[in-house]
Amino acid sequence: MDILDQLRAFVATAKTGSFTAAADQLGVSNRLTSKYVAELESRLGVRLLQRTTRKVGLTPAGEDLLARAPALLDDFDDLLAEVSEGSRAFTGLIRISAPVTFGEVYVGGMLARFSEANPGLSFDLRLHDGYVDLASEGIDLAFRIGQSGMMAIKTRKLGEMRSVAVGSPGYVAKHGAPAVPKDFESCSCIVDTNRRMPRRWTFYNGAEAETVNVMGRFSVNSARAAADLAAAGLGIAYAPRFALHERLASGDLVPILDDFGGEKGQVSAVYLEGRDLPRKVRALIEFAAEDIRATSIL
């Protein structure tokens, strides 16, 4: 029996937690899916799945295989696409991870634009602000803000985002705009708890940095929600420019203290080290690098 069919059956079952759901996904029978997985276990001499009457779970050996099998299957699909006579189109699935706001504001639209020229590809975009383990989640490519401390991660810098202090025109007209960073300490500020130091805002006058401690009635773990609260006239927000893009363009928000530079952070595409990157993922990274420059989202 083809080991690729066995691996595909295993991956689908492990991800869905059900032979029935895996069979539906693969377009084969429940019985055949179960048979493929059993043959793979026999071939490897280990049990990969724990079967109960209610669900299917992974054994430690199954967890190890699931961490690598999706990438191997994708590499095989890419190989077939490369060597198939007369065919250079990308096919298969790309699994992508991104922070929630950046994913909603930019990555989703970028993938839509990339997909127009690549109709053979499908995409699984997962938005999460916490740490995501690329290996265990089977992620092909992740977009990240800031530096990554993981040694097993390779990084491609796509650009640099800058944070901006903003308020609504109505708020500025009523309360005035801070003239120097110290003035923020007496303002009603909207705190984005996703920031590394939510209540400490740093501004730059050339190379000189000034950090201020801010207070306010509203705290929220979303830059986009902070921008919405600021647009409602409830205070001043400090957020990445990409999260403010539409609000600034519409005039719902105006920059405050724009003569001072805000905090900066690297925007990167990251992927696992130790294996050749599939052509379709390399193409997506190159597209994102060009698209970010073209859209001026940062």
CATH class identity of the domain at 162-263? Alpha Beta
Uncertain ranges: none
The helix fraction, in percent, is 40-55%
CATH topology-level fold name of the domain at 162-263: D-Maltodextrin-Binding Protein, domain 2
Q: What would your notes on this structure say?
A:
One of its GO terms (biological process) is DNA-templated transcription. This protein is α/β, with parallel strands linked by helices. Among the domains are: 1-65, Orthogonal Bundle (Arc Repressor Mutant, subunit A); 162-263, 3-Layer(aba) Sandwich (D-Maltodextrin-Binding Protein, domain 2). The chain is 42% helix and 26% strand. The strands form three sheets. Strands 3, 4, 5, 6, 7, 10, 11, 12 and 14 form a nine-stranded mixed beta sheet that branches. A hairpin with a 2-residue loop joins β8 (200-205) and β9. α1 packs across α2, α1 (3-16) crosses α3 and α2 (19-26) packs across α3 (30-44).
Break the fold down into its secondary structure elements and pairings.
Layout (H helix, E strand, L loop, with lengths): L2 H14 L2 H8 L3 H15 L4 E3 L4 E3 L1 H24 L8 E7 L1 H17 L4 E7 L6 H4 L3 E5 L7 E15 L1 H7 L13 E4 L7 E6 L2 E6 L5 E2 L2 H9 L4 E5 H10 L3 E3 L4 E2 L1 E9 L6 H17 L3
Parallel strand pairs: 3-4, 3-5, 7-10, 7-11
Antiparallel strand pairs: 1-2, 5-14, 6-11, 6-12, 6-14, 8-9, 8-13
For the structure shown, list the relevant keywords.
298 residues; alpha/beta; Arc Repressor Mutant, subunit A; D-Maltodextrin-Binding Protein, domain 2; nine-stranded mixed beta sheet; three-stranded antiparallel beta sheet; 10 helices; elongated
